[in-house]
Amino acid sequence: MTQPLLSLSLEELTAWVQTQDQPAYRGKQLHQWLYQKGARSLLDITVFPKAWREKLADYPIGRSAIAHCRTAPDETRKYLLQLADGLIVETVGIPTEKRLTVCVSSQVGCPMDCDFCATGKGGYTRNLAAHEIVDQVLTVQQDFGRRVSHVVYMGMGEPLLNLKAVVRSLQQLNQDVGIGGRSLTVSTVGVPRRIKELAEHQLQITFAVSLHAPDQSLREQLIPTAKNYPIAKLLEDCRYYVKTTKRRLTFEYILLAGVNDRPEQAHELAQHLKGFQTHVNLIPYNPISEANYKRPQAKQIKQFSDILHKHHIENSIRYSRGLEANAACGQLRTQHQPATTSPEPA
Ligand code: SAH
After folding, report:
1. Catalytic residue positions?
2. Is residue 302 part of a domain?
3. Which amino acid residue places its CA nearest to atom 11 of ligand 1?
4. How far is the CA of 331 from the centre of ligand 1 (A)?
5. Would the CB of 117 count as within 6 Å of ligand 1?
6. What's the rounded Cα separation, in Å, for the pair 194 and 212?
7. Which end of the chain is more exposed for a tag (fewer CB within 10 A), N or C?
8. Which tens digit of pLDDT belongs to each residue from 281-320?
9. Which residues, other chains included, contact 33 with Cβ-Cβ below 8 Å and sequence gap of 6+?
10. Which residue's CA is minimally distant from atom 18 of ligand 1?
11. Same domain? 93 vs 120
12. Is 189 near ligand 1, meaning CB less than 6 Å away?
């Protein structure tokens, strides 16, 4: 299969234009049109000779098509993007005055099956290629008409099950698209051995681990795959990550009323995280129709956060945006895809 152009670096694009009997400097032009101007076809690249452009009009670039886009009242936009093989992934653009954050998917669906997450309920189809992740960022950048400042790998999928493509996409977003390493966040629920493997890449990214429970038995209840990854081992690997990369690590903790939000659970969590260079993001649960959990009352949420503060554990409460467009954390699902369709509630 021909490699889509969006998967190539400046050097590789320069080599490619030369195989097309074009001068080397066209590689730099092509790089700029692909990664900065967001060209969707070689026909768009008006600085190229017309005859060459027309000859290669159908050459695969690797861009998806926007199948659907919905804007929430808070200006968050959720996209359904159609890939070359017809499959759909979800991407979210989250604007603030200073930032434009893209929440990207790393897989079509997800095999982890966490009990509170809509993506897992829809099953798993395949890994995304690196260029399919980069494309999501370029699509949002173009649609908003402003530069993307941050990317979070918190859409559909478990990034560490697709480590090679995820690492490649991080390098491309940094080097080709020009987004600072620290503004790229990878979030994982934990996959044995992969945290250490990621650490070896020494990327200057932000790394987040979805912990969600202070003890192994509750964690297994919420995250079935945690059975293969004892919490003590997970935390040991997180310490290794911090030591190797010399970067602070973020823990994410979803708050589910009456399940993991009790004061004694906050104390227990604090014991685990003592001495850790970390920041905890407390994420109040976003309701999904397939699960019976409830979001805790604001008072409970504040109490949990205060207890962590008393233990000197830095933390903040993160309400996710886009709730009204089903674009918030955990609400991405593959319902529009025939293979996994379940009827919409009336
Ligand atoms: N697989 C990765 C990344 C995708 S989920 C991971 O699990 O970290 C990104 C974040 O959204 C995770 O912390 C996840 O636990 C959280 N999340 C999932 N479902 C949610 C829901 N219904 N409400 C709030 N957060 C949710």
Report:
1. 90, 329
2. yes
3. 329
4. 9
5. yes
6. 19
7. C
8. 999 999 998 899 999 999 999 999 999 999 999 999 998 8
9. 39, 44, 45, 47
10. 330
11. yes
12. yes
Q: How far is the CA of 199 from the centre of ligand 1 (A)?
A: 21
Structural domain of 255: 74-325
- Nearest ligand 1 atom, CA 157: 1
pLDDT in tens, 162-184: 999 999 999 999 999 999 999 99
- Domain match, 157 and 42 both: no
% of the chain with per-residue pLDDT over 90: 89
CA distance 298 to 284: 9
Residue 198 domain-assigned (yes or no): yes
**Quick check: CB of 285 below 6 Å from ligand 1?**
yes
Angle at 132 between CA 244 and CA 246, to 5 degrees: 10
Q: Which residues pair with 127 in a beta bridge?
A: 107
| Residues sharing a CB contact under 8 Å with residue 229, sequence separation 6 or more, in sequence order | 190, 191, 192
The model's pTM: 0.94
Write the DSSP symbol of residue 235: H
Residue 142: both structure tokens together: 């173009």
How many angstroms does the Cα of residue 280 sit away from the middle of ligand 1?
14
